[in-house]
Write a structure and sequence with these properties.
This protein is mainly alpha-helical. The protein is 37% helix and 4% strand. A two-stranded parallel sheet has the order 1-2. Helix 1 crosses helix 2 and helix 1 packs across helix 3. The longest helix is centred in the last third of the chain and has 13 residues. It starts with 6 loop residues before the first helix and ends in a 23-residue tail after the last helix. The chain binds a DNA duplex (13 and 13 nucleotides) through helix 2, helix 3, strand 2 and helix 4.
DNA sequence: CTAATGACGCTAC
DNA sequence: CGTAGCGCCATTA
C-alpha cells in the first residue's frame, strides 16, 4: 500500500470537498497540484475514506461510465444522497460545484 | 526516444 | 443540448 506519488495529494484534496457540493477533476487536480488526468488516475485508486463520488467532470457529467457503467450509477445515487440534483441527463447542476458563482 | 492510452478540459460546429 | 476534435501530463509498451 504505497503510493509515493501525487496520489496522496489528490486523496487529501478530495477529502476537502464539503458535503452537498461537487468538484471537477480539474479543480481537484489544481488543489492537489496535478493535472485533471492525474486526478482521474488517482481517483481510480481511491482508498477508503475518500469521497470519490463528489468528483465529476467539469461539465457535471459522469465520464467514468466508459469502463464501469455500474460505478456511474452508484456515484449518481451517492450525489443524490448528498442532496445534489441532476439535470434531465446525467449531469450535476453547476450550482453544486465548489466553483460557486452559480449566478450568471 | 516515439507511440499509445487514460474516472479530463475546453472550444468549435 | 449533442457530438467531434485537439490539448494536457504521466505511465507503460
Amino acid at each position: 500500500l504505497e503510493e509515493p506519488t501525487w496520489f496522496a495529494a489528490v486523496y487529501e484534496a478530495a477529502r476537502t470537498i464539503p458535503p452537498g457540493q461537487v468538484c471537477s477533476y480539474g479543480q481537484l487536480g489544481a488543489l492537489a497540484g496535478v493535472t485533471a488526468r492525474m486526478a482521474g488516475k488517482a481517483l481510480a485508486f481511491t482508498p477508503e475514506g475518500v469521497p470519490w463520488w463528489r468528483v465529476v467532470a467539469w461539465d457535471g457529467s459522469l465520464p467514468i461510465h466508459k469502463k464501469d457503467p455500474a460505478l456511474a450509477l452508484l456515484q449518481r445515487q451517492k450525489l443524490e444522497s448528498e442532496g445534489i440534483k441532476f439535470t434531465g441527463s446525467q449531469r450535476v447542476e453547476s450550482r453544486f460545484f465548489i466553483s460557486d458563482d452559480e449566478d450568471s
